């Protein structure tokens, strides 16, 4: 029993130490900021400092999950932008995985308990998040959705912030027109049909090449999946050996298609273009394997969200734009260095 | 009180405390956690947050009831997460696409869960005697696949409003799923402690051979455990679908592992025969409080996983030491 008692003590001790340790670790940023404000308020007594803390504007930021570079960059950018603003603090919480829809909803519920002042989030399942967002509406906490430009929830959304997907398709179209000089055969490795992003990118592309002599000989869904894109690409080449260019609607599919083209020894005959600006794709552009990719700016969406939060904080909630389309950029061999850090 | 009465009274009490002694560690853990978190966060010890925690815990803790049965018999049920998804999907598809009566949809959802549990049971107790780990692992894939096939991978939404009561409704100030959780635990508690069929789960897990010789039908007991597990998982699936108002084929992510964690934190032995249903509830609460507290304290998801892992390792090692 003596031995177990020791264990018991150890257990509580370790749990509490770890909790306290992490707390201090995680609140470091906020703490230094607070310390600064305290210094400026220097000799005033503690009560007033407490009042100041209450007045602090708290933005909640919840990504789909910190498993892709896109969201990690977005999260870093949100923190950096918020640091520039006095009296604003950000609470960053993320579910473990994009599939952990319930985990994300629990985070929304917990942030609601903390009575944050605004929420900026990239929601994994808009329909499933609707009930909790309706509770935010009831509590009067404004919601900004990131990485999407249409409201697929049943709740009231203050602002939709996302990459202008139509423009990213358009940028690909313009580049293809330029490269092929208005004439040629193009194959598309498409995203999941019916999905908003896939449809926007496609119509941006199609509208741009309309009227030219560019012909889309194949438009096959590879469901954003790299491995599936390799198989699909092989099939497309079997049917259309004379295509000039392939557009992968995301970089994963573009690289998957590239793999098939490499394996078949057609690297010199077929040009590959991607979209998204994933690090691997940017490297492939630099290596000359990928002709171009469209860089969707995660820091752009982050900045827009924090700008909106600033407006809310200053009581100018009416000035917050309903939608903020973030314009993407085209990365080719000529300008690739500005995208690679 | 005469001597005889006192003897019986003492034996009942001591037996009770012996069984329930496994919950000492998690209870101390919860108390310590509540005290620490109350000091660290002003939002933690409020009525609305306590209700919030109970509601968040209700779904996984119902899954953990069935898992306790499976583990008590010396087995395990890895298919619960998939059953959560399938029952939610079946119920919502019937509601939306076929417009059936709400009660009928729910009963069908529960029936599907029990059916999957029966499938597990048959694989485990039939002549082949498949190890529970393998049988339910296979079922996990099959059931998840069926949920995806039924929905073509897309969530089922725009459900009738009346469906939302199960997951989001309140009776006075208490969320309905929390009431369901207490009902399920009360039934399981009475069954496991005061009925013959319940005590059989303990004896089969404790010593299969002795149970067989004393006339217990091992296969029936094990079969029942998996049906119960399927049933509680499907109830949880329906509550979850109603809570988010979506039939989601990828719902129940990692539920098998979370519910196993709740069961072992609660002091139930993975070898079977020893454990407590109250312990499971406390295990689920401990994890729920910890997650909620870490979220309130703005601890990143990376660290949260480390802390949860540490808590599991520590409470379980404490329980193993107690048994020695």
What order do the helices and strands come in, and which of them pair?
The complex is a heterodimer of chains A (341) and B (324).
Chain A: H1 2-26, H2 28-40, H3 46-55, E1 57-62, H4 69-83, E2 88-92, H5 101-113, E3 118-121, H6 126-139, E4 143-146, E5 159-163, H7 165-179, E6 183-190, H8 196-209, E7 213-221, H9 226-239, E8 245-248, H10 251-263, E9 271-273, H11 279-286, E10 292-295, H12 298-313, E11 323-326, E12 329-332
Parallel strand pairs in A: 1-2, 1-3, 3-4, 4-5, 5-11, 6-7, 6-8, 8-9
Antiparallel strand pairs in A: 10-12
Helix pairs in contact in A: 4-12, 5-6, 7-8, 9-10
Chain B: H1 3-20, H2 24-40, H3 47-72, H4 80-97, H5 102-125, H6 132-151, H7 165-168, E1 170-171, E2 174-175, H8 176-194, H9 196-206, H10 208-213, H11 218-244, H12 255-265, H13 277-296, H14 301-323
Antiparallel strand pairs in B: 1-2
Helix pairs in contact in B: 2-13, 3-8, 3-11, 3-12, 3-13, 4-5, 4-6, 4-11, 5-6, 5-11, 8-9, 9-11, 12-13
Structure commentary:
- In chain A, the strands form three sheets. A six-stranded parallel sheet of chain A has the order 2-1-3-4-5-11, with helices on both faces.
- Chain A contains twelve helices and twelve strands.
- In chain A, β3 (118-121), α6 (126-139) and β4 (143-146) form a beta-alpha-beta unit.
- Chain A has 341 residues and is an alpha/beta fold.
- The longest helix of chain A has 25 residues, at 2-26.
- By secondary structure, chain B is mostly helical.
- Chain B has helices spanning 3-20, 24-40, 47-72, 80-97, 102-125, 132-151, 165-168, 176-194, 196-206, 208-213, 218-244, 255-265, 277-296, 301-323; strands at 170-171, 174-175.
- Chain B is globular, with a radius of gyration of 20 Å.
Describe this structure in a few short sentences.
The complex is a heterodimer of chains A (341) and B (324). With 341 residues, chain A is α/β, with parallel strands linked by helices.
